[in-house]
Specification:
By secondary structure, the protein is α+β, with helices and mostly antiparallel strands. It folds into two domains: 259 residues, Conserved hypothetical protein from pyrococcus furiosus pfu- 392566-001, ParB domain (Alpha-Beta Complex), CATH 3.90.1530; 95 residues, Conserved hypothetical protein from pyrococcus furiosus pfu- 392566-001, domain 2. The chain contains eleven helices and 21 strands. The strands form four sheets. Strands 1, 4, 5, 6, 8, 9, 10, 11 and 12 form a nine-stranded mixed β-sheet that branches. Strands 15-17-16-19-14-18 form a six-stranded antiparallel β-sheet, with helices on both faces. It has a four-stranded antiparallel β-sheet with strand order 3-2-21-7. Helix 4 crosses helix 7. The radius of gyration is 22 Å and the shape is globular. The protein starts with a strand and ends in a 9-residue tail after the last strand. The model has no long low-confidence stretch (mean pLDDT 92).
Length: 385
């Protein structure tokens, strides 16, 4: 099953960086142009310079590589002395409740999806993959991790977590802690030998890693550090990861859209939206009117099978119920579909039978930032067997 290994990670030098919050960033796909500029201004060593460099065309990837080399040379980023796993805990608030995320960074052998070891759950877009491929090709590094989830029904991994929390953190703040763990490595590696890993976030980065691995293994004729990709691994049941809904907001729909919707589903008028665990419920909102209907399949699957019969509209995705409603009320959008998120078990059942969900079906929270630890191929070249 999944081959998970420790690695020599690059982390910020505690003697050079007082507050890790000043130099880490969100992952590239949720950094707006405005946030990108703000992060550049926030600190001269902010990781956005590697994760999402400013510039045009090839030059920005060349600049990212130069920056990485300079930071290593000047000991802004320092490698661990031994291969390690990096355990991470983050406190966050959702819907007024404080929650705790727990997971760890390791490198995972890149396998084709056909082997059913690393499982995708969504389809991808081509443009982000090209950007991520170029960044990987120039820097030979994973700056931000793929988010992977595993299923530990028996709670075997809790004992390792209890051991980790007795150790001194590498970095610590009111919000998060990160530990570099260079013992108990076999226990962690062996834990995954009969487990699959489901890609929660980072499908584009994984498909990029797969393409890069194939290219490099042909070039060098053997596996190497490029045969692995950095993941942040979280237990689906006890890791504290939240799965939020992603609503659909449409504009430019045809005149017969609503009639076809009514012919396909049994619409019931309502005046209340409740976000629950009901995976077969969809709310349909247009200005001044609210309906709900049930689907035979998972709500987003049935909804997109219906939407696929149209090609004359544009769609925007929102994780906020209030935003989805306001976009329609503002007059720029025609209607919104409000959906409940799938459960972890439903997600598992879908991917284990080899299916994928429509794009933007899931939204895992919190997002794991870039810069907590970096996997660099050059530093790990001697560690690969």
């Amino acid at each position: 099953m999944a081959e998970v290994k420790p690695f020599i990670g690059l982390t910020y030098n505690r003697d050079m960086i007082d507050r890790l919050e000043d130099v880490i960033s969100p992952p590239y796909d949720i950094i707006s142009p405005e946030l990108q500029r703000n992060l550049y201004s926030k600190h001269p060593y902010n990781i956005v310079r590697l994760e999402l460099p400013l510039g045009e065309d090839e030059k920005k990837y060349i600049d990212a590589d130069k920056t990485l080399r300079l930071w290593i040379e000047n000991k802004i980023l320092v490698p661990s002395k031994k291969p390690s796993y990096y355990f991470y805990e983050e406190k966050y608030t959702l819907e007024g409740k404080e929650r705790v995320l727990e997971g760890f960074f390791g490198i995972v052998k890149v396998e084709s999806f056909e082997k059913r070891v690393i499982l995708p759950h969504e389809f991808t877009f081509p443009k982000p993959k090209e950007d991520r491929f170029n960044l990987l090709r120039y820097t030979r590094s994973n700056v931000s991790p793929i988010l992977g989830i595993y299923f530990d029904e028996a709670g075997i991994g809790r004992e390792i977590w209890e051991y980790v929390k007795l150790k001194e953190p590498l970095f610590s703040s009111d919000r998060f802690k990160i530990w570099a763990v260079d013992d108990r490595l076999e226990d962690i590696t062996n834990f995954f030998r009969d487990r699959i890993v489901l890609i929660a976030d980072g499908h584009h980065r994984y498909e990029t890693a797969l393409r890069y691995r194939e290219l490099m293994e042909v070039k060098f004729g053997k596996p190497g550090p490029y045969s692995y990709v950095m993941m942040f691994l979280v237990d689906a049941y006890s890791g504290g990861l939240s799965l939020l809904p992603t609503h659909r907001v449409l504009k430019g729909v045809s005149k017969d859209f609503e009639n076809m919707l009514k012919a396909s589903f049994s619409l019931e008028k309502t005046d209340l939206i409740e976000i629950t665990q009901d995976e077969h419920l969809v709310y349909y909102y247009k200005r001044g009117e609210l309906f709900k209907f049930r689907t035979e399949k998972l709500n987003v699957i049935s909804l997109h099978e219906f939407l696929d019969s149209f090609d004359d509209f544009s769609i925007t995705y929102s994780h906020s119920l209030e935003e989805a409603i306001s976009l329609v009320d503002g007059g720029n959008y025609d209607l919104a579909f409000i959906v409940n998120p799938p459960s972890m078990d439903t997600l598992r059942n879908i991917v284990e039978r080899g299916d994928r969900l429509p794009q933007k079906t899931t939204y895992f929270y919190p997002k794991i930032g870039a810069g907590l630890v970096i996997y660099n191929h050059n530093l790990n070249n001697g560690e690969m067997r």
